[in-house]
Write a structure and sequence with these properties.
Strand order of the largest sheet: 3-2-1-4-5-6
Helix content: 25-40%
Largest sheet: 6 strands, parallel
Shape: globular
Strand content: 15-25%
Radius of gyration: 16 Å
Structural class: alpha/beta
Bound molecules: adenosine-5'-triphosphate
Distance between the termini: 36 Å
């Protein structure tokens, strides 16, 4: 089974890696495809938006060395707003069973996504809890709860927003993002202030 892991990945961080690894193992996935959105439906007016090519490069740097991880340019090349249902349909056409990896915070808003029931029919939803996500399977519509597998793992209070804020404040993000990602952040001067060798 193939796992689809979509996101902005601006930048990819420790949380993403743990989610992909733990969900991959728990759901018995052969591979996890990391899919940076061209433009996320939830972040269309994001002033902190980073070019898709740069986010893709950071994803490639983050997943280097893990044979089960790969990146895809499908949404980046499709351009415009990236709707998961379109991507799931495209991947499902290949006939391979599909799992969609999501954090608990994303699951809460899932019923408001475009054609959520179509997504749930085409893919198993593999969910990794996130601090403060308030997910209770009993609160979800039955069609959604039936499609969800919750994966066990330590809650990780790490976010791209938090990483960007630390970089902007000149605080280290070493170990919060892989070294290769940190290098791209530094080289391209992403997210604001960079002071001295210990920042970013
Ligand atoms: P931002 O802070 O910019 O909103 P983010 O850290 O939520 O970004 P995304 O790229 O938007 O990162 O997330 C992609 C997917 O990874 C989403 O399904 C999200 O819920 C999940 N995710 C990200 N960080 C974590 C985490 N620490 N724990 C569980 N799930 C996570």
């Amino acid at each position: 089974m193939t796992g689809l892991f979509g996101g902005s990945f601006n930048p990819p961080h420790l949380g993403h890696l743990v989610v992909a690894e733990a969900c991959g193992q728990a759901a018995g996935l052969d591979r996890v495809v990391w899919m940076p959105a061209a433009t996320s439906p939830h972040k269309q007016a994001d002033p902190a938006a980073t070019p898709a090519a740069t986010r893709l490069a950071m994803v490639d740097a983050a997943i280097a060395g893990n044979d089960r991880f790969e990146s895809s340019r499908l949404e980046v090349d499709r351009a415009g707003v990236s709707y998961t249902v379109d991507t799931v349909r495209q991947l499902a056409e290949r006939g391979e069973p599909l799992a969609l990896l999501v954090g608990g915070d994303s699951l809460a808003g899932f019923p408001t996504w475009r054609e959520p029931q179509a997504i749930a029919e085409l893919a198993r939803l593999v969910v990794y809890r996130r601090p403060g996500d308030h997910v209770r399977l009993s609160d979800l519509p039955r069609w959604l709860a039936a499609a969800v597998t919750v994966v066990d793992g330590p809650p990780l209070d790490v976010s791209s927003t938090g990483v960007r804020a630390r970089v902007a404040a000149g605080q280290t993000v070493r170990y919060l993002v892989p070294d290769g990602v940190r290098e791209i952040i530094r080289r391209k001067g992403l997210y604001g202030r960079h002071i001295g060798p210990e920042s970013a």
